[in-house]
Hints:
The structure holds two protein chains of two kinds. Chain A is of the alpha+beta class. Chain A is 29% helix and 14% strand. Chain A is built from 13 helices and eleven strands. Chain A has a four-stranded mixed sheet. Helix content of chain B is 22%, strand content 22%. Chain B has two helices and four strands. Chain B has helices at residues 42-51, 73-82, and strands spanning 3-7, 32-36, 59-63, 85-89. Chain B has a three-stranded parallel sheet. In chain B, α1 (42-51) links the parallel β2 (32-36) and β3. Classes of the chains: A alpha+beta, B alpha/beta. At the A-B interface, β1, α1, β3 and α3 of A face β1 of B.
Amino acid sequence: MQVGELVADPGPNAARVPAGTDLVEWYYERGWSDGLPVVPPTPEKVAATVAALGGEPQRVEARVPPRWGSLSREVLAINAVMAGCRPEYAPVVRAAMVAMCTTHFNLNGIQATTHMAAPLLVVNGPVRRQIGMNCAHNVFGPGNRANATIGRAIRLILLNVGGGRPGELDQSTLGQPGKYTYCIAENEEASPWPPYHVSRGYLPEDSTVFAIAAESPHSVTNHIADDPEGILDSIVSAMSTIAHNNAVSGGSCAVIIGPEHAATIGAHGWTRADVRSYLWMNTKNTFADVSFGHRYGRVYNRNLPRWYRRQPEARIPIVPRPEDIHVFVAGGGAGRFSAFVPGWGHMSSPVLRSLDGRPPPGDGGCEDGTCLL
Amino acid sequence: MRELIVYDPTGRIEVEPRPLAPRPSTVAGLRVGVLDNAKWKAGRLLERTVALLDEVGEVRHYRKESFSRNAAPELIARIAAENDLALTAIGD
């Protein structure tokens, strides 16, 4: 936009360049991109986004590791506009960043690790509809502005403010596509169960963001089973490998149940708690599996809980408790698919926050399960 | 001249970088705190490293709760109080 004298003081993060400058290239040249073109922020768009956050542009919402840059409302707005967000998406971006900058999420480690972990966001509550998020067909895929740009805004903040540049502070060996954007909403309307955030003690009219350090989703196909056990046994099969990080590092994971599977499971009277307990109880890894039968030297594995039996035949749950399997319903109405989303491990605890930053009321003083750490 | 406004999206750094402590010229007689970061092979790597230190003084061993999370401030304070130098390593 050409501003001339119209903007007397565009703020401490602004500078002026000659008219005619190719702004997309200007941001590329400074490394302020995820590799895709950014939307050049204008004073009007930044101001509208700051206003959606409650004004006070220099108020710091978080400090983002490992660079520990200050995420003021204005800096958040700049990144949100660059990602393509509309102003009304900004409170979701803020709640996600507040959740991710909670100490026990360990964003410092997630940014720097050689693992492919990326923060997966799951949004619940009325804000999903208010800002037009997709919780149905192709929920992990492209096509919805809110999902795509909220997830992208998170990544731009992790890159620009957090300094998580590949090969520098981000040492991930492979990365994964979710590091561009990884944001979905729960399909509360297609779920046989109360919304996820209600199961954690929030009111249905609250809106929340759940953040978990996660690998890519692993598709679970089951077109045969007409009962919960059969569907869940397919998810158990996806979980029962020694390749994902949960197998050797415990922690937490997510399971996304597609609406058709959810309808079958719900029709048999099974609750969300029944689902995660069944999954927790029936995964098949043994200590011999995760220790390679001591083929490479005697293994204890200090990253698994001390109360696990270290005998070869002992079953090793993929996460320590059923509550560490976070179950959501999402996806389109047709298709008997679900997804298993492995986590990063015990190094990070998933965090749930309301848009105004409140921790889960249902955790009874054990916020995000951290009293068990 | 008409101009365009651009923005720096990186945010200010308001934390102070801390300089490294002065390096000792010898380890002879010094108390060494060995911090195992709990990675798979960190313990073994540290054990062999300590064996290479000539005429080292007393050696004390410590362990982080998680390799990826920061060491607890109390643990760092204890290592600093009980030793002249600290040794740590990552070992996958």
